[in-house]
């Protein structure tokens, strides 16, 4: 996904003189050709994430369309107040593209991980959040974001599904029993959900914000499970609000708040957080049996 | 509006309200190429009140220059007022950035100067005003170092009323490595004007005013 991001954003910068890119050293090598071609619009501020966000806000105030990019813990967690004030409070927009997600950087440790990024943006107004599940879903998101001035977050991951699903709407991937449980998988959680071997309807979205509440209301009649690749329960407020008139039960699965203090691979972390197929099956089975 | 009126209107922020008064007047009266008629022009000069605190002098200057009616000054901070104890660019004509939390204006100003340069507005100038205590915020130092590294055309003004709790050993100018520095009397309008009309940057104008009484 990162390679797709670099190639697409380089093309966007070439085509649209209104666009700009602000970096804080991360991925600077990959964007070196773009920086040579557009030295005034491709800016590397060094290891200064607060400044990266402030510069993006300033660029937007002059009418440019800034993209900014780093690991999720640095571009979101560290620069949270700049995102809140230098973008939102100024009524300015930007496109934030992160890598690393919850635990792609598994061996780097917790300093390089951000399970809470989407929850943090949920405290703020007006953020569209894309969580692509496949590299082929990324270019459309970037091109669309370049065309307006709103606030957009694109959360890239090294975890991905086998197949891409075009568009950003909420779609049913597999039909289960009529009026049975619906499992909504976000981004790269789709394949683990499909492999969990559950007799349920499986739906998919790569755009959890704004949540497609109309489609969700059409689908859910009784039991609903949300499976997200970031902090568990991040979408509970949005789902509850969407289904406030539907008697139903909800389960929210995702990355737990527990800091495991282990390294290993992303697959190890998925297992520790119960987000591998076996863990998902156990949690969802227990919920449906009302254990 | 007199300084006494400013003091009465905003007791908490009074020292910061009038510490900036002369610099603000010189900016809007003699330096900035911006008026109520050009407030949306892409090549207008920019001024950012980074510290945001005590904005009554700022509001008064903007009202005197016709950016909004002077009557707005009569109910600052009320439920229906557009003028709060920190300025909001969405609510106040002529206010370029909404500030209040310290340490945001310089980064925004760096981005604005870069954005203006990228679009070829080479005559447009960007100014940002900070307080000496505001320099305590580390975010400023990210912006100071980067602006120097890329030789950005930007003018910062530091109002020095010696309000930083631990002071700045070695002086404020020593924090702006790679910047051109001017020291002025923050109450001497001709000195202020002379420093602010110098071009090329990054440049910092340190305007000393009377010490803040705590």
TrEMBL record, chain A:
Family annotation (InterPro entries): PDH/Transketolase, THDP-binding, Transketo_C/PFOR_II, Transketolase-like_Pyr-bd
Gene3D superfamilies: 3.40.50.920, 3.40.50.970
Taxonomy, superkingdom: Bacteria
UniProt domain Transketolase-like pyrimidine-binding: residue ranges: 1-164
Protein name per its UniProtKB record: Transketolase
TrEMBL record, chain B:
InterPro entries named in the record: THDP-binding, Transketolase_N
Domain Transketolase N-terminal: from-to ranges: 2-196
Membrane-traversing stretches: none
Superkingdom as given in the UniProt entry: Bacteria
Stated name of the protein: Transketolase
Organism: Winogradskya humida
């Amino acid at each position: 996904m990162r390679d797709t991001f670099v190639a697409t954003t380089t093309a966007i910068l070439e085509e649209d003189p209104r666009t700009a890119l602000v970096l804080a050293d991360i991925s600077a090598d990959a964007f070196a050709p773009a920086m040579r071609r557009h030295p005034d619009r491709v800016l590397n501020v060094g290891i200064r994430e607060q400044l990266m966000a402030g510069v993006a806000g300033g660029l937007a105030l002059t009418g440019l369309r800034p993209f900014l990019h780093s690991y999720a813990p640095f571009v979101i967690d560290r620069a949270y107040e700049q995102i809140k004030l230098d973008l939102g409070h100024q009524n300015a927009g930007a496109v934030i593209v992160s890598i690393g997600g919850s635990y792609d950087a598994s061996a780097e440790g917790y300093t390089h991980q951000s399970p809470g990024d989407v929850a943090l943006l949920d405290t703020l107004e007006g953020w569209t959040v894309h969580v692509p599940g496949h590299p082929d879903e990324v270019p459309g998101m970037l091109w669309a974001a370049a065309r307006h001035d709103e606030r957009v977050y694109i959360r890239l991951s090294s975890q991905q599904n086998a197949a891409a699903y075009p568009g950003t709407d909420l779609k049913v991937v597999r039909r289960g029993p009529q009026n049975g449980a619906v499992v909504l998988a976000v981004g790269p959680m789709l394949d683990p959900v499909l492999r969990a071997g559950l007799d349920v309807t499986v739906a998919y979205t790569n755009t959890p914000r704004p949540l497609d509440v109309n489609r969700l209301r059409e689908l859910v009649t009784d039991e609903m499970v949300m499976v997200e690749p970031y902090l568990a329960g991040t979408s509970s407020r949005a789902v509850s609000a969407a289904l406030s008139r539907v008697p139903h039960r909800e389960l929210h699965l995702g990355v737990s708040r527990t800091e495991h203090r282990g390294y290993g691979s992303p697959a190890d972390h998925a297992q520790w957080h119960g987000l591998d197929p076996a863990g998902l099956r156990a949690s969802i089975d227990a919920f449906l049996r009302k254990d | 509006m007199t300084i006494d009126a400013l003091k009465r209107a905003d007791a908490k922020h009074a020292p910061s309200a009038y510490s900036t008064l002369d610099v603000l007047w010189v900016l809007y009266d003699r330096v900035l190429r911006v008026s109520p008629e050009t407030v949306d022009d892409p090549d207008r000069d920019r001024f950012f009140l980074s510290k945001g605190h005590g904005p009554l002098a700022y509001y008064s200057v903007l009202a005197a220059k016709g950016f909004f009616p002077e009557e707005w000054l009569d109910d600052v901070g009320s439920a229906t007022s557009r003028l709060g104890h920190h300025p909001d660019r969405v609510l106040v004509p002529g206010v370029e950035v909404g500030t209040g939390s310290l340490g945001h204006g310089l980064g925004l100003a760096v981005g604005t100067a870069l954005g203006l340069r990228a679009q070829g507005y080479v005559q447009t100038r960007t100014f940002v005003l900070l307080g000496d205590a505001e320099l305590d915020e580390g975010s400023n130092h990210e912006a100071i170092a980067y602006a120097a590294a890329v030789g950005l055309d930007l003018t910062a003004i530091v109002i020095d009323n010696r309000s930083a709790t631990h002071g700045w050993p070695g002086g404020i100018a020593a924090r702006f490595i790679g910047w051109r520095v001017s020291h002025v009397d923050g109450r001497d309008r001709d000195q202020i004007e002379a420093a602010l009309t110098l071009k090329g940057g990054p440049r910092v104008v340190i305007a000393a005013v009377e010490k803040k009484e705590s």
